[in-house]
Amino acid sequence: MKGLQTLLIAFAVAMMSAASAAPQEPVDLDELLRQLQQGQFAQSEENKEREARFRAEADEQQRILREAIAERDRLEQLSERLETRFEQNEVELGNLTDALTQRMGSLRELFGVLQQVAGDTSGKLQNSYVSVEFPGRSENLSELAQKMGSSSKLASIEEIESVWFALQQEMTESGKVSEFNTQVTLANGEKVEKEVVRIGTFNMVADGRYLELVPGTDTVAELIRQPASRFLDTAEAVQTESADMVKFGLDPTGGSILGLLVQAPDLGERVDQGGTVGYVILALGLIGLLIALERFVTLTLMGGKVRKQLKDTTARDDNPLGRVMQVQDKYPQVDTETLELKLSEAILREVPKITRNLTFIKIISVVAPLLGLLGTVTGMINTFQAITLFGTGDPKLMAGGISQALVTTVLGLVVAIPMTLLFATLNTRSKNIVHVLQEQASGIIAERSERGH
Question: Signal peptide position in this chain (predicted)?
Answer without folding.
Answer: 1-21
